[in-house]
Design a protein that fits this description.
14 strands; 9 helices; alpha/beta
Length: 260
């Protein structure tokens, strides 16, 4: 597998997943058809599938344009089965745990709701890669538009249970802002400070900060660290009266991030 980030809109990422054995490719999340088509041409690959993580326009708004450009029937469109009516062009609805093949690549859908009620990640175990959409970001997580703190925490824990070397490809370039927020809660986290410098250097060169890894996220992401004592003290100082349990700490952390 080869993964090529495709910048879209202001700060979105789609991802070309290239099966080098066949020259076929899938695209994770299509906000705009044009940059996806340009990326496929530059890589010399044929797009045969769309993997939609959730229904928001900045992730599926280009689905129909890409279908029209490549021809009806040329693309399989994957998405969460119960959310099918909100995924344009869906042809392959997937339930939690459903497995699928893209050429020689083997993937599995992971149901991770809370940002939306029908959000899925796409996990390729053999390649140690997961596409997390707007649930798990580099050093952050998505807003809870259609779920609550307990549900989002559970979804993130499911992703965090993947092997530490799993590469994480998320839906937006939010990393520097997320790290700046994380540093206000864990100023003593040396790995966080190191990654903050590395991310700044990458962005200064115009390079993406993705992928990260599950191991790195567990070390720096405040939404995976509700049990960390420094973070808990910081959150409770900023939100006096926050209960001393992991879900309450998580909810307060998300509230603080919303205001950051």
């Amino acid at each position: 597998m080869r993964v090529v980030p495709v910048p879209q809109l202001a700060d979105n990422y789609g991802y070309l997943i290239i099966d080098e054995a066949s020259g076929e490719a899938a695209i994770v999340d299509v906000a705009e058809a044009k940059p996806v088509l340009e990326a496929a041409k530059a890589e010399g690959v044929r797009i045969t599938a769309i993997l939609s993580t959730h229904h928001h326009f900045d992730h599926v708004g280009g689905n129909q344009d890409l279908i029209n450009a490549l021809g009806v029937g040329a693309l399989r469109v994957f998405g969460y089965a119960a959310d099918a009516e909100r995924i344009p062009g869906i042809s392959d609805p997937l339930d939690d745990g459903a497995e699928f093949n893209l050429g020689s690549l083997h993937g599995r859908a992971l149901f991770i709701p809370a940002h939306t009620s029908g959000h899925v990640a796409y996990y390729f175990e053999n390649d140690a890669v997961v596409f997390t959409g707007d649930t798990l970001f580099a050093a952050g997580c998505g807003r809870m538009f259609e779920g609550d703190a307990a549900q989002m925490k559970s979804s993130l824990e499911r992703l965090a249970s993947l092997p530490d070397d799993t590469r994480v490809y998320c839906g937006h370039e939010y990393t520097q802002g997320n790290l700046a927020f994380a540093a206000t809660l864990e100023p003593g986290n040396e790995r966080l400070q190191e990654w903050r410098k590395q991310a700044a250097a990458l962005r200064a060169l115009g390079e993406p900060t993705v992928p990260t890894t599950i191991g790195l996220e567990k070390a720096v992401n405040p939404f995976l660290r509700s049990d960390n004592e420094e973070l808990r003290r910081s959150v409770q100082a900023k939100r006096p009266g926050t209960a001393d349990d992991d879900v309450a700490i998580f909810a307060a952390t998300r509230s603080l991030k919303d205001e950051f």
